[in-house]
Amino acid sequence: MILVEDPNTGEIRDLDVEWGQLHAQAATMRPRRPETPLELDALLRDIEDLGFAIADLLREVNDARYEAEITHERIRKTAFAKHVRVEKTVAAANALADLDALTAYADLLHTKAVFHHAEDTNRALGRKHYGLMNTNKGIQPMTANWHRRTP
What we know:
Distance between the termini: 63 Å
Order of helices and strands: EEHHHH
Number of strands: 2
Structural class: mainly alpha
Strand order of the largest sheet: 1-2
Largest sheet: 2 strands, antiparallel
Strand content: under 5%
Number of helices: 4
């Protein structure tokens, strides 16, 4: 769980839940194949809106990722300082410190995974958007001059 406090409202939000909702919306974009220029325009707008929502989420997840890195390092270094007084070797103290910081490390890896998954999804939406824009660029001249053509 990636919990973040909203600075404006003080509300605690779970970014995993928000990412799940945005990912479900992105998954609905994949099979959509517009057949008319109006459907194409609507799909382009939907993809653009979703891209902005994912970009906002990426910023928040990135902030949470840096916070998780700081927390992991703080826990690990505190544990190392505690164990280095007792253990005979630095390697043993490092191993024990890594064990103590294992849950913080798992949280860090989870946050990184969510960030990269959201980033890849946003890139895929961008590629679909550009492809549809190129398709639209080819359709526009054909539909704009249909009345001028002679058989």
